[in-house]
Amino acid sequence: MSIALRLLIMILTLYSIRVIPFLFLRREISNKYIRSFLTYVPYVTLAVMTFPSIVTAPGNIYAGIAALIAGLISAWIWENLFVVASLSCLAAFAVSLFIG
Predict the structure, then answer these.
(1) Triad 67, 72, 76: Cα angle to 5°
(2) What is the pTM for the complete model shown?
(3) Which residues contact 51 (CB under 8 A, 6 or more apart)?
(4) Mind listing the pLDDT tens digit for each residue in 3-50?
(5) How many CB atoms lie within 10 A of CB 66?
(6) CB neighbour list of residue 66: distance below 8 Å, 6 or more residues apart
């Protein structure tokens, strides 16, 4: 299969994903359940992509779980990204040192 054909397939796929909603959704969506669903889709997608990486990135499953728990608790309390990231890294490092 040539590179030009692969590029054409990729272009058609990406373009159709962006154009099809404009063809079928002419007016504003008024159903509150569908609007709510569409509001939370980006957050769920981001969570699904990052959750496995959070747990497996340190190389030790216990350090990853500790980082996840530390991040959740610190995000709940402070809501500051720098603090959450710092405490998550410290938790993963501390558990990695002790479990080794």
Answers:
(1) 145
(2) 0.59
(3) 68
(4) 999 999 999 999 988 888 888 877 888 888 988 888 898 888 888 888
(5) 23
(6) 91, 92, 94, 95
